[in-house]
Amino acid sequence: MIMESTNIELIKEEIEALKAIFCEEGEFSINSNVIGGIFSESDRLSISLDLQVKCSTCSSAKNRETCKIKMTVALSKDYPGVLPSISLSSYHFNKKEVALFTDKLHFYLKTLHPGPIIMDLAMWLQENSVHTSPQSHESGDKSDDNEDINELVVVKLDHMRNRTCYLKTLTAWANDLDISIMVLFAHKLILLVFEGSSDHVKEFLKRFRSSNIDVDSSRKPCKEKMMKILVQIRHPTKLGSAGLNWKESKSNAELENNFKEFNLLDIYSKFVLPSL
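== RWD domain-containing protein 3 ==
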């Protein structure tokens, strides 16, 4: 308990330092809270930093375009003694480039000693991303354009009794099927926003309907029987690299901003808002 209390204090100090550095609107967000010396129900704390990086669109450093990459760092209650898990997403970079960044960042992570390292990761990302070119929305290469067109699905859930196990299962499926998943909580509302290739999305939905993923009122394992698909369409890639992220919204306005952040405001307005 003493060690856990020490870890909590170190995490709080690091959070305050990050807030002071990444103080512009939208640069820093925290997806769960450390309350009373313990973690939230999931036993994980998720911190997101919206980082500005220099994209090498031309040889002159002066004229390089400024792009953004979102780094989400998931901390366990054993951090900083245990290294965190990291995921990246970006609208300015395509899926392959984000995956390349993620691999390189994970390699760099393994070279670090346990300790408060989120700032080190942010600085490394800002310094090294200059070597990758941003995706071109005007490219004439049709094969690349088609490669970044996936199926986007928004699912509404009735409840999630065992959040920890539920999210753990979704994370495993996301990594296994190369699918990007965003889970959004807003009061009693639970939304899953995910994307991937048509075949992988089909397999994901099959597992979702046929596998034990939650528990019933008697705490017995059960399948998801109360899901509702709000929309399933072909859509340009928005959520970034494969994996799972989740966010807790305190209001519908915050929920709307989550969709706006990934340029999915049209999806929110047409399909999510009418269901609220």
